[in-house]
Amino acid sequence: MKVTLISYTKECEKLIAVAAKQTITQKEFSESWNEMKEDEKKEWLKETMSRGHTSPWEHCTYTFLIEDVSRVLTHQLVRHRLASYSQLSQRYKRIKEIENYYVIPKSILKKGDKALEKYINSIKKSFEEYQELINMGMPPEDARYVLPQAVKTKIVVTMNARELLNFFGLRMCMKAQWEIRALAWNIYYIVKSIHPDLWKFVGPRCLQLENMARMKPIELEELLKNDNINLIIEKCPEGVARENIKLCVRTALNDIREFLESANPNNGENKI
Ligand SMILES: Cc1cc2nc3c(=O)[nH]c(=O)nc-3n(C[C@H](O)[C@H](O)[C@H](O)COP(=O)(O)OP(=O)(O)OC[C@H]3O[C@@H](n4cnc5c(N)ncnc54)[C@H](O)[C@@H]3O)c2cc1C
Question: What's a Pfam family this protein contains (predicted)?
Answer without folding.
Answer: Thy1
